[in-house]
Design a protein that fits this description.
Elements (H helix, E strand, L loop, with lengths): L2 H8 L8 E6 L7 E7 L3 E7 L7 H22 L10 E2 L8 E2 L5 E6 L11 H17 L18 H14 L9 H9 L6 H8 L5 E3 L8 E3 L6 E4 L6 E3 L1 H12 L17 H15 L5 H28 L11 H32 L2
Antiparallel strand pairs: 1-2, 2-3, 3-6, 4-6, 5-6, 7-10, 8-9
């Protein structure tokens, strides 16, 4: 066992004699994660990537605030369920994390015995939608404006568009001439980039607690029943809009192809998966959704897909400095695939709105 990990665990009152094993865990790209099994419990230890998350203390304050709120609510209304959520373990001195002499930040949480999935059928999408919807329902009364903005302007699509225009202007790598069609499509959507941001600024769209990374594998599922237990990976908890989480979840979950699919004929928006997630999501939020949010639900899927596409395009023009690539032009292929998906979503918005309204009527 690495001595530095044992030193960190000792700050939580876990002695080396109690530990059965420490081993790397998961396949996350941001934080380094370890599973710790003692003779009486199981924990997850994570090193927070402070190059991505500039203020780990504020990040942890966000997580503790929302998980404590959920636990209190579950204790009151669903006794026995309060332990089925992300639980931050305090150090012996009462801190939310350990700051080491080498300048690293570590946090400890209790491990929940469960599984995650990378993709799924109708039933899995239904469950994931229910779990994300329940998570946001649990936090509907939480004062979102008290949360720290971990990554400022994360889903500010209007600003993302301005970043793209700056990249086109600078053309550092001389690639702009290679992506004229992509630039033309990106510019055709310009007037719609600020719809959600403007709605939040005016108060028409309510400020909500948002997860901002609503991938399927951020929901823990019961090993036997495959029912949703809780939402994990709360690092990007921030104030925002339900529309960000809903739209981005479906961009990822209802796509027919990989994010960088080369054969664009294989890229389409899977309406069965859309319906499954929407059915589950809406069933849990019920009367929490406002008319202004409902009106933009289908559009938000197109917007979040477009936003992802322009981020890939911006990075391609800037020389692939943000997103990790595994082969040349991967960011360009990602751009093309996301734009193809966004255009298919646009054509299906009337059908999507009918499905959304169908399940809202059943609530």
């Amino acid at each position: 066992m690495e001595k530095y990990l044992l030193d960190i665990l000792s700050e939580y009152g876990i002695n080396s004699e109690e530990i059965k094993y420490i081993k790397p865990f998961g396949n996350g790209h941001i934080n380094s994660t370890y599973k710790i099994r003692t003779f009486s419990d199981v924990f997850i230890l994570q090193k927070i990537n402070h190059n991505v998350f500039k203020n780990p203390y504020k990040l942890m304050e966000n997580i503790v605030a929302v998980t404590s709120f959920i636990k209190e609510k579950e204790t009151k209304f669903n006794p026995g369920k309060e332990n089925q959520t992300f639980t931050v373990i305090k150090t012996l001195s009462g801190d939310n994390l350990v700051y080491t002499e080498s300048g690293e930040y570590y946090r400890l949480q209790r491990c929940i015995d469960a599984i995650t999935v990378e993709s799924g059928n109708f039933d899995i999408l239904l469950t994931v939608g229910e779990t994300f919807g329940r998570f946001q329902n649990q936090l509907a009364e939480f004062p979102a404006n008290t949360l720290y903005e971990v990554i400022p302007n994360f889903h500010n699509t209007a600003k993302r568009y301005l970043d793209l225009e700056e990249a086109i202007k600078n053309n550092f790598k001389g690639r702009a001439a290679l992506v004229e069609n992509e630039i033309k499509y990106a510019r055709s959507f310009k007037d719609q980039t600020s719809i959600i941001v403007d709605g939040l600024d005016s108060g028409k769209i309510p400020l909500r607690v948002t997860h901002n990374d609503t991938k399927l594998n951020n929901v823990l599922l019961d090993k036997n029943t495959f029912k949703g237990i809780c939402v994990i990976d709360l690092d990007t908890i921030m104030p925002g809009s339900y529309l960000y989480d809903y739209g981005d979840a479906l961009r990822f979950a209802a796509s027919s192809a990989d994010e960088d699919e080369h054969d664009l004929s294989k890229v389409f928006f899977d309406m069965d998966k859309f319906e499954a997630f929407t059915k589950g999501y809406v069933s849990q939020l019920k009367n929490k959704l406002t008319e202004s949010e409902i009106e933009l639900m289908a559009f938000s899927v197109e917007l979040m897909t477009y936003e992802c596409g322009i981020r890939f395009l911006t990075d391609y023009l800037n020389g692939d400095t943000y997103f990790k690539i595994h082969y040349p032009k991967q960011n360009l292929m990602r751009t093309k695939a996301q734009f193809a998906l966004a255009q298919d979503i646009h054509n299906k918005i009337p059908q999507m709105e009918k499905i959304i309204n169908k399940y809202l009527k059943k609530c």
